[in-house]
Every structure is written in C-alpha cells, then in structure tokens.
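User: Can you fold this complex?
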Amino acid sequence: MNDLGSTGLRPGAEALSHLGRSVEAIRAELGIDPVSVEAIRDPAIYALEREKIFRRAWLKVATAWEIPAIGDYKVKELPVADASVLIVRGKDDRIRAFHNVCTHRGNKVVPTSDFETFGRARANVVTCRFHGWVFGTDGPLRSVPLEGSFGTLDKACLGLREIACESWEGFVFINFADPPEQSLREYLGDFATLFGGYPYAEATTAFRYSTVLECNWKVALYAFSEGYHVPTIHAGSLPGFRGIEHADFKLIGPHASSTIYGLGMEAAESTARFAGLFHAGTDHGPRPDLLPPGINPTGRSDFQFELPNIFPNLLIHLASGCGYPGMAYFTHQFWPLDHGRTLWEGINYFRPARNAAERVAQLHVNALHRNAWLEDTATMEDTFTGIRSGAIDEMQLMDQEFLIRHAARTLDSYLAA
Amino acid sequence: MNDLGSTGLRPGAEALSHLGRSVEAIRAELGIDPVSVEAIRDPAIYALEREKIFRRAWLKVATAWEIPAIGDYKVKELPVADASVLIVRGKDDRIRAFHNVCTHRGNKVVPTSDFETFGRARANVVTCRFHGWVFGTDGPLRSVPLEGSFGTLDKACLGLREIACESWEGFVFINFADPPEQSLREYLGDFATLFGGYPYAEATTAFRYSTVLECNWKVALYAFSEGYHVPTIHAGSLPGFRGIEHADFKLIGPHASSTIYGLGMEAAESTARFAGLFHAGTDHGPRPDLLPPGINPTGRSDFQFELPNIFPNLLIHLASGCGYPGMAYFTHQFWPLDHGRTLWEGINYFRPARNAAERVAQLHVNALHRNAWLEDTATMEDTFTGIRSGAIDEMQLMDQEFLIRHAARTLDSYLAA
Amino acid sequence: MMSATMTLPEGFADLAELAARWARPTENARSAIRWTASAEDFAALHAAMMPRLDAVLARLEGCPLDGMDSAETRLFCLAAAFAEAAPHHELYGGSAEVPHSFSARRFVPGHGDTPSWSTALR
Amino acid sequence: MMSATMTLPEGFADLAELAARWARPTENARSAIRWTASAEDFAALHAAMMPRLDAVLARLEGCPLDGMDSAETRLFCLAAAFAEAAPHHELYGGSAEVPHSFSARRFVPGHGDTPSWSTALR
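Assistant: Here's the predicted assembly.
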C-alpha cells in the first residue's frame, strides 16, 4: 500500500514514485528510536528556532484570493520574527510584502489590533497616521508633509522595507532572509509537483478559526501531524471513523506527506442529508480526478485526504471533496508567540455555494470539522504541561507518526546549520 | 504559660518538653530585628523557591479518606513544579503518586480543568484519550493500540513516572526529589510525635474552599500564621473573641507550633442553639482528652486550637471540638501559581453527622468559619501591593508572629543550601 | 427532587412561604439567594425561624441524612439556609456581605454543587 | 434587518417559534444561543426540523446567496442554526459542549460577525 511503485498507477504518478517510502524504508531512513522532547521543553532552543528557522525558511502568510483586487492588503503580525508584515496587491497586480513600518520613526503604517488585518489601499497608497508619510503599494515613499523642514531626506532610499515574497498555486510565502538562499520553487522542490495543479484558487469560500494555545508550537504541529489519534480523540465527532489507514508515506526534502484512507464516518441523519446535497453535483461532490497524480496514485475509492507537513509550520489537507462532504481542502498553521504560546490557525476551504441551501450544508460540515478541531486542541496544553514537568524525556513514535519524526530531524538539521 | 517544663503536665507531655520555648528563648533564638520583605518581593527568589523548596520538601497533596476505595484517584495540578500529579489507590490498597503524563508523547492521562479533580479508575486502569494507551493504577503500561507499528517500544520502561509518596496519619505527601533526602517520618521529625495519635481519619466530613489570590504565597501563609490579628480582623465574625492568648511556642526543626487559648466567642443566639446540639454528646463536643499530650500539656480548660506551621506550606489547626463548636480540625495550604499568584485551600473537618440536625449545625459553624476566612483573605492582596510598592523594606514582627519569623529563616536556609 | 414536592413535614406548614424563598439543596444555590437578600429579608427569616428552631432541629434529629423523604429534605434545606443566613442578621447588621471582607464570589466551595445532605462530603 | 421582519416564506409558518428562538445571522450569535441550550432544546429543534429539512433545503436551493428577501433570509438563518446544532443532538448526547473538548469560547472565528449568507467569506 505504501509502495508507490506498484502497478496500476494513475498517469503521471510514476514521475514521483521516488518520494514514496515503505514502512521498512521509513524505519531505516528515520530510525525507530524514541525522540527527545528537549526541543519542545527548552526555551533556549526556541530562541535558536527564531533565528535559524523562522528567519530563514519560506513562510506562508496569505493567499492570492484573500486580496483579490488591486490595492487589497493583509497585515500579518509575526511575533516569532518581531515583525508586522504588510502583504499588498500593487497597481501592477503583483503581490509584495513589506515591513509594516514607517521609515520615518518606526510607527506601524497600517495600525492593527489583531493577528490578521484586512483592508484596501485607496489610490494605491498607504499613509502613516503618525505624521502622514505616504507610501505606494509597490513600496516607494511618495510624499512627506513639510518635506522642506528636513535638513536632508533621501526619499528614494526611504521606501517601505521589502521582504522577499513569492507565490505558489496562489499561496503567498515570504522569507525574512535578504536574500533568501533558495527561491520558493527550489525550497518546495518535489512538493510543488506533488501538490501542484489542483484548482486551489477555485475554493475561495473560507471559514477561519484561530486560538492562542498555551503550548510550544511544535506540540500543536505534531498533534495535527498523525492519524493515530483519530479513533480515540474523535470518537465524539467522527463516530465509526475506524477503518482509518494512514499510508503512502513520502519524504520530500524538508517536507513530507502521507495519505489518510478510510471508509469515512458513520454519517448522522442530518449529515447524510446535507452530504446528499453536495454529492448530487460535480461542483462539491468527490472529485478524485482533480487530485494531482502523485496523490492517491492507485485511485483507491476510499481516499479521504492527503496530509503533508510543509516545513516549518504549514499543513494543507487536500481532500477534493472525498473526505468531509463538500470540502476541497483545509489548512493549519502554527505561529509561535513565544516559547510556550502558539497562535493556531485552521481554515476550511469550499468551492462557492451556488445557492443558499449549499451554504447551509457548508455551515454543517464546517461546524462538524470545527468540533473535531476542538477535540484536537484539547490535548495540546496538557501535553506541554506534561513535557515541562520532566516526567518524560522522550516521545515514543510509531509508524503513523513519521511526520513528527521527520519534522524533528529537519528542525535539528536547521538548528545545526 | 509558655514554659512546658512546669508542673502538672498531662502524661506523656514531658517527652516533648524540649520543643517548648519561652518568649525570651524565642527572642534569643530567632532574634528581634525586623525581617526583610525581599523574599516576598523578588521574583528571582520565587524561581529559587521552586527549585530548592518545592522540588525538595515533602508536600501534602491528599488525604487517605478522599480516595477511600480501590481505584479512587485525585489529580492535583501543581504549577509550582510544572506538574500534574495523579494520586491513586491501587488494587493492593496502596496509595501511589505519578506524573499525570502519558509516556507516549506527554499528554495528560487524566484530563483536568480544575486544580483538583477526583475520579475512579475502572478495572484499575487509566487510559489516555489521545491515542488510547492504558496504564495500571500501580503504574505499568498495560496496552498500546497498534503496538506493532512501533519499530521499537520497551513497554516495561514506559510505565507512569512515579513520584515519591508517603503517608502520615492519613495525610498523603509527595516529594519531587528522586530520591528524597529523607523519609517523610524523618522530615516531620518531632512534629509527627507532637501531632500524632489524633483520630484525624474519623473526621471525614470536609467542607473545602479555595481561591486564587493575587499575592505571593508567603503573604497568605504569614497572614494565617499568627493570632495577633484576631481581635481586629475578626471583630465581625468573632465578636468578643478578646481573651485570646497565643502561647506555648514550639520550634520543631523546619516546623513550628503554638497554641491559641481564649474564652471563645460571644455566641450569637442561633450559634448558641447549634452549639448546644454538639455539646450534648461526646461525638462532636469538646474532646480535649483526644489531644496528643504535647498539645495543651497542662490541660487548660480554655484551649481553643493548636496552630502549627508545617514547612513549607501546610497548617493543621487541631481543635478537637474545643474551638469552633463541633469542628475537629481545619487545614490551610498555599500553592504558588507564580511569583504573585497563590492558590489558597482551606478545609473544615467534622466527624460525620449522625442525623440531619447535626448536619445543619455543621453548616452553621462551617459558614461562620468561612466568613472568618473571608475576613482573613481581605488583607492579602493589599499587603502584596504594599510590599511591591517599595514603601517598606522590612516587616516588624512581635512575639505572637514568631511562626513568620521562623518560616522566613527556614526558607532562607533552604535557599542557601 | 426540589421540583417534585413543595410540602414540608406535618406541623411545619407555617414555614412554607419561607421555604419557597430560601430552601435550596446546595451551598452554591443558597449563596446565590443570600447575596441578593436585604436586611429586611434576613430579619424576617430570623424572626420566623428562631422561635421554631428547637422544633425544626428536634424533627431533623430523627432523620438520618441518607433516608429523608422529600418533605423532610425540604425542611432540612430551609434549616440549612437559616444556618448560613443567621450571622448576617445577628453579626453583620443585615448586610449580605461579610463586612470588610474578600469577595465571597471568589471563594470556590469544592462541595458547592453537592446536595448538603450528602454523606460523601470528603 | 433581523428585527425588521419575523416572517418566514409561505408554507413555513409552522417554524416561526423555532426561528424566534434560534435564527440569527452570524456564527457568533448562533454559538451564543447554542451554548445555553439544554438537551431538551436540541431534541425539540431536531424533532421539528428534521422532517422539514427536505422542504427547507428545496426552498433555499432556489435562492441565490446575494438575492434573498427578508423571509428567505430568516429561513436561511434557522436552517443555519439547525445545521450547527444538529450534532449536539445526534452525536453529543444533548450536551451544548463538544465532549472532551477545548473551550469553544476560545476559538475565534474570523468570519464570526459576518452574515453567514455573505459571498465574501475568504
């Protein structure tokens, strides 16, 4: 099942067969020993992670469809990098990222109170409220009140400070390194091929949740990186989700992926009715044919979703309507706020409802999945307390937890670099 | 009065006469100078206390009668030690303590939302909800779902992490040191003799109160460690409690004790009626004869209760029905949550009511005492604010406040060790 | 149970109105009522209950905690409310708060939602 | 808008009382109501709505999201409340909380105050 080189592959799948790993190969490559919890427990390691991972890796901060029109912007607060980042679509339709910092004396150009703030720049400029300095959405400093009163002012050098920003499939990434060691495409490598070609941009209806968890960011990341917990943690919201198989292990440089197969949940009475609405048409029904060929390469009918770990802090669960009824995909991100606090963001993506009934059905599936997330997040603060207590020095990891093992090794290699 | 070597002692009292101190002896031994408030004010000292006191001293965390049946457990959250502790009565009737931490990846085995959680383990096992690992109430890891998917798993070494746990007179103590420097009996020393032999376990009807105080834990401890405040603070709930005498000072290594004598309160009309119910029989009436001989050694008829300070954070006010009508004893504990936050726990213990009228009388006395506690706790946050303000650098301490002076010295000696 | 009957044992019917106002099974429920009471409420409760206290306690002395019928339980709940409320009339000048005290709302009784006749308060 | 009309589309007048109790335009408003509901409330909503669900959805299938009149919007809001409340009856034993879960109050929906019929949820 884990051997992607088997017969009966979908066209194009063999091109990625070098990513696949059998359980034996995973064990040989990543080892079977318990993994130290020190990287979770030690605040000094968190200080290193800020420098060597979050200031060096490509980080997803937006999607193109969040800021669809010229002048649309998003501000994202990233305490892990001591940064407030302005992501804005310029007059040339290009998306750029800047430090949201006025070059005059350091005030925020766009004031914010939440971790994410959306808005639209009128006349393609943003104006700092402190003294009225005006910047173009493409960066340059356009005007300065009482400019003559500055003894000297090299306006050409005082544009917004740009941050490297590139997109893949509509997902917008930034990189704080100047310049980054690799382009985004190089950084994603085979992952970009494995997940490429799906019409992500068509699933623009998003239900977003976030919460601040009192735990290290990796506790949250790891809890969402395996299917071993599904029969226990989700006994409430996903009853009968027992035939689950976590398989098709793939290693992709710093990234990794795997597939959840299964018979799905025993749908409750209302869920069955709402699912029926989705399954009646091709817009929201299961579309395994849209999956890139390296995902579910043998075309199994019990495919649920693909579960990758995109280094360092992004998951894209690609379902194409096969898992939760009507859902195209969902994403998670884990943003450290400090060593023991994490902003978790979960987003459910659907294709636009064509009528009010479809929206109601989306609200039902969204609520079910939000509830499953409430079950997931219940363990995280307890786990961090447990690890801090010193009661255990290692995590025991089984095969289905290989994404954790792989992420821990990648983290180690970044910190050692 | 403070000289325990005087004539007319109760049988057995002279064996503990070496603990007694006259006022002059207390002044000579502990000094008379003001005491610095720095240990209360400085967060760095709190960090030291966590390491050198709370990870080294024996801490009372439960009573045997809270978990009377096989499989009964209590979970106690102890942020001062970054720990969640599972205290459980095993199939062999032995009470053990464990870190409430799953050895798989660190989740809490028993989920909790309060500082204390009670429950019963079915079939003498506890099961982690995250992935279904099962542990015996005596510690061993019993079963692991999908055990074959772990490349290696030494189940014999993955039992719950045990914490040293010993009992004295039904009070259950733990010690985070591995191994502890002393047994519990050695640690309690003469205190175990002084307070030993009272039928604590027969007073199983408990009324418990707790609150989170915005103050350093020692502010709360010290406020409950002296009788000097009674005529002022308790003018409302204990009117006429004026003949109070705080005497019989005793030093017992890191612990200390003293006695409150007095004529008791001027009982209000209803209180007199309820007290009459208790005083009619021997079950709830004053039983000075049950007091261990070192307490009230001369058999004074105005004995109210014995007030010890058991290092670092426990008080057992032993009254044997002589103080508040019908009350056998009451305890206080002070658990640091951080430098400036404290969980206070107060428990009133009565012998079981033999009928509904006795329970009503207990509710009355319990309410009076709870109200007195509301008067006590009113000062604590203000005191801490005052100390943090820097307006004073020292506390002025009189003779009846010697338990504070002694506790401060004991703390210093632990921190210096 | 509380909604099942509003009766009191024979001979205590005169306390029915007081019971409707004050009798509740748990400390939390009784505290909530007490916190909203006026000096007049406390005085009225005291004036009505104090002369009847001997009779009430004598009746309850015949009741084991775990064997009361619903009328006895209701009398117990009224007596419990009086036991807790009396100091407010006798000592606190009719104030629902203990004077010069910490906020009673911040005290968490571990037994707050347990029926006060329970034999398992430990 | 919600206060302007309390009517439902023709043929759905039998759901008026349920709509008064449950129909709200946003996820935050519906969650606030759901968190105070009892097992009986969830059972009653389920018993009333489930037999009518086909008719409700058929009616709403004819409505574009950005073109509903106020009666249709109210029917939509009731259906939305049912869509979110049904699991509490069907899966959670009538509990307003998801059993063994993180506090739902700590989850912040980015769209929490946006009308749920908005076409601009992104």
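Chain B touches chain A at residues 81-84, 99-108, 111-112, 128-132, 145-146, 149-153, 158, 161 (CB under 8 Å). Chain B is about 25% helix and 25% strand.
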